[in-house]
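Protein Record: Sequence and Backbone Structure Tokens
======================================================
Tokens: labelled as protein backbone structure tokens, with as many entries as the chain has residues.
Question of interest: how does this chain fold, as expressed in backbone structure tokens?

___
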Amino acid sequence: RSFTSGIDCSTMIRTILRHYGVYVPSNATARMLSGRGKAIRRSQLRPGDLLFYYQSSSERYIAHSAIYIGRGFIVNASGHQGHYYPSGGIRLSRIDYRYPTAVRFRNVIGG
């Protein structure tokens, strides 16, 4: 998948990390990515840090990932009705757009 022919959240993050020289296996899922880098608190978020979300409040496993861009906003590839980008699309969202809100915060690139 690619940014122009369809992408999911994990693929988007893998592609961006590779651009910055961070090796990520091509099969890394959001759950796998959530263990990379250094754990940080939400109050320590800086642009470029990764956020991870549970599937739902009752299904507490990591199922979605996003990149923090600052001022309470993230960029993520979000499916819509089970479809990948462009049906859902790469979009800007508020950090708390999804319930439950992000549950893990990671600094992977540094800084």
About this structure: Residues 9-19 form the longest helix (11 residues).
